[in-house]
Amino acid sequence: MSEQRRPLLIMGSGGLVAEAADVAEDIGLWDVEGFISPEKIDLDEIGGKPVYPLSEAIQMAATHHTVCAQVATNRDRFIEKAIESKFQFCSLVHPSAHVSRTATIGSGVIIGANAVILSHSRIADHAIILANATVSHHARVGSYSTVAAGATLAGLTTIGSNTFVGINASILPERHVGNFCFVGAGSVVNKDVPDHRRAVGNPARIR
């Protein structure tokens, strides 16, 4: 007997919510019933599904799980408001992703198609690992951070919280990228990046 699908609301109003919805549908356990915006917006629906401001979605907290697919600097505050509203967070791992049995995956995590999470790595709560990204052995990704499509974190790297690693970027072995950082698309990071800095280029220049 097939398992009954569980109702899911995806937090966010940008393009990434469509990717998260695809991941949820491909898993086959979730019924995406709509989306939650941080505030009232002009958009009434995404892909035919309704968009609710958080103030209205609160009434569904007891019956729906949620996950946040908003890539923005205020994502942590958005999630904290949802937690205060008693929403229960789930994690979404695409069936084609490889996740080592020794890896640790937190709550509210999204892992996209063909992503690779290798041995003893740790993905903290509410982090997002997009399609074809690789998190190598013993690497760490902090809470509320995003590793974009095709990016590679080499072994023993650490990414702080609220940090964005761009498309096809590479973080070389044992490097540390701090909190609230931005790594540009295609950049190669070969030295540590302090908090609140931008790293762009090959090799990356830190600003």
Verbal overview:
The protein is mainly beta and 207 residues long. The protein folds into two domains: 6-89, Rossmann fold (3-Layer(aba) Sandwich), CATH 3.40.50.20; 92-195, Hexapeptide repeat proteins (UDP N-Acetylglucosamine Acyltransferase, domain 1). Helix content is 13%, strand content 32%. The chain is built from three helices and 25 strands. The chain has helices at residues 16-27, 54-57, 75-84, and strands at residues 6-11, 30-37, 45-46, 49-53, 65-68, 88-89, 92-93, 98-99, 104-105, 110-111, 116-117, 122-123, 128-129, 134-135, 140-141, 146-147, 152-153, 158-159, 164-165, 170-171, 176-177, 182-183, 188-189, 198-200, 205-206. The strands form four sheets. Strands 7-10-13-16-19-22-24-25 form an eight-stranded mixed sheet, with helices on one face. The longest helix has 12 residues, at 16-27. The mean pLDDT is 93.
Topology:
Blueprint: E1 6-11, H1 16-27, E2 30-37, E3 45-46, E4 49-53, H2 54-57, E5 65-68, H3 75-84, E6 88-89, E7 92-93, E8 98-99, E9 104-105, E10 110-111, E11 116-117, E12 122-123, E13 128-129, E14 134-135, E15 140-141, E16 146-147, E17 152-153, E18 158-159, E19 164-165, E20 170-171, E21 176-177, E22 182-183, E23 188-189, E24 198-200, E25 205-206
Parallel strand pairs: 1-2, 1-5, 2-4, 5-6, 7-10, 8-11, 9-12, 10-13, 11-14, 12-15, 13-16, 14-17, 15-18, 16-19, 17-20, 18-21, 19-22, 20-23, 22-24
Antiparallel strand pairs: 3-4, 24-25
